Fold:
Amino acid sequence: MNTKKLAKVYKALSNENRLGIFKEILKQERKEYKDGCFINDILEKFKIGAPTVSHHLKELANANLISTKKEGKYLVVSINKEILEEIKNEFDF
Structure:
């Protein structure tokens, strides 16, 4: 992973709410052993409005940390596991 890409990832995660949202998505995926979680599950955990959550999700998606897809009338978010591996490998000693 090049330095510019890594900086973009860390910039996206530098916001407290985005980091919390990212961690919650990861937690939901691990808890349920599934690919993704519903945005409604995320909204219930945070005391911020839907437009703000939407903005944070867009920033995380722009950094390639998550992907979103529609399932019916619901939005499902999933972690990009490849980029997590890249980040982990970047700092393996």
Notes: The longest strand covers residues 66-71. Residues 16-32 form the longest helix (17 residues).
